[in-house]
Amino acid sequence: xxxxxxxxxxxxxxxxxxxxxxxxxxxxxxxxxxxxxxxxxxxxxxxxxxxxxxxxxxxxxxxxxxxxxxxxxxxxxxxxxxxxxxxxxxxxxxxxxxxxxxxxxxxxxxxxxxxxxxxxxxxxxxxxxxxxxxxxxxxxxxx
Length: 143
Description:
With 143 residues, the chain is of the alpha+beta class. It has a domain at 33-122: 3-Layer(aba) Sandwich (Endonuclease, Chain A), CATH 3.40.960.10. It has four helices and four strands; from the N terminus they run H-H-E-E-E-H-E-H. The protein has helices spanning 7-15, 23-34, 84-107, 123-135; strands at residues 40-41, 52-54, 59-64, 111-116. The protein has a four-stranded mixed β-sheet with strand order 1-2-3-4, with helices on both faces. The N and C termini lie far apart (56 Å).
């Protein structure tokens, strides 16, 4: 299926998509605030400027768009057929950058929770997942 917009119009539309303060991020932030958690946003001193940072808990929440971050096996992450090479390169680079940033955060002692936009509709389940993540001590066992 070809694009319904010409190249210039599609470029203009895509340029309007913002990386921060997205609706999915705001959904997660409202839930966290309602649960009594306080946080920082897009901390520039941390790898990748994470979406939500809870310094008190030494935890980070990344809210990923399924399309932009290549959510595996998600219908929302279907790559466009037009200009396929560009989109494959872009999304693959995003995924590699996400892996590097997550690894750097973990190496620095931060616990990381990755959330996908397709997971945010069920707010009850999301709230439970956030509570479990934030209230766990992060200890995974071992000697």
